[in-house]
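stage 2 :: seqdesign
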């Protein structure tokens, strides 16, 4: 194992660089990149260890959930396989790609199942460093802007969705994870009155930007009465959904 990748020698900057490197090399959004997966990908596995195929599948699933095509995933699997000793065989890659087609695998591996490669509290997914939070927040905003959704939503819906991205980051939630909030938080972050938030959230769910939604109380901030949300990840493409734009996507938001 490379010394600079070891958990006790990894500071937040190295974790950030590792996360960015994996995103750049694979073509996924940095908001979907995790350093534990990057360590797994770059280190490979030596000595004929039995974990080569399971780790290869974890990497493939991560890339699949991030929206990469099978052919692209295959190329990255082959790069990982070449770092293993002995290398993986073509039949192994084919079996992994077939497995990705199963309905059993619709979510990437949770952090607690990747402890062997975890870098601890320095992880950009878990960490609370201001620089890391700013990067994750900006990555979410950038992905949303590049998707073209701005031209398909009302001004209020854009503000609410961007506020949801901001809240997700503040609460150290993974891109595909659930987070809870009270209406007062969302009102303050979005600038949209809480009387209009319920309909806006429901509209965002109808068009596919919110994956799961459980509306809580507008006024009571008790945890058990807060609103629960999971945003769509990766962000879907509105043009492929047959939606009609409300305005030019170049318009400022």
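stage 2 :: out
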């Amino acid at each position: 194992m490379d010394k600079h990748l070891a958990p006790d020698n990894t500071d937040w900057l190295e974790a950030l660089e590792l996360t960015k490197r994996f995103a750049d090399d694979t073509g996924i959004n940095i908001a979907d990149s995790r350093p534990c997966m990057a360590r797994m990908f770059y280190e490979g596995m030596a000595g004929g260890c039995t974990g080569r195929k399971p780790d290869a599948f974890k990497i493939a699933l991560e890339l699949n959930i991030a929206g990469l095509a099978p052919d692209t995933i295959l190329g990255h699997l082959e790069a990982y396989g070449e770092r293993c000793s002995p290398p993986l065989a073509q039949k192994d890659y084919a079996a992994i790609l077939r497995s990705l087609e199963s309905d059993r695998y619709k979510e990437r591996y949770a952090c607690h199942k990747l402890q062997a490669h975890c870098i601890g509290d320095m992880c950009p997914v878990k960490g609370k460093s201001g620089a890391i939070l700013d990067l994750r927040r900006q990555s979410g905003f950038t992905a949303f802007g590049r998707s073209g959704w701005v031209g398909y939503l009302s001004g209020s819906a854009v503000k609410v969705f961007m506020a949801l991205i901001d809240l997700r980051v503040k609460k150290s939630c993974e891109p595909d994870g659930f987070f809870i909030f009270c209406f007062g938080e969302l009102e303050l972050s979005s600038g949209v009155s809480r009387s209009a938030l319920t309909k806006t959230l429901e509209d965002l769910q109808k068009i596919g930007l919110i994956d799961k939604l459980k509306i809580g109380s507008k006024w009571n901030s008790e945890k058990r009465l807060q609103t629960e949300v999971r945003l769509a990840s990766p962000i879907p493409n509105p043009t492929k959904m047959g939606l009609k734009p409300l305005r030019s996507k170049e318009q400022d938001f």
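stage 3 :: structure notes
- The chain has two domains: 3-122, 130-241.
- The longest strand covers residues 210-214.
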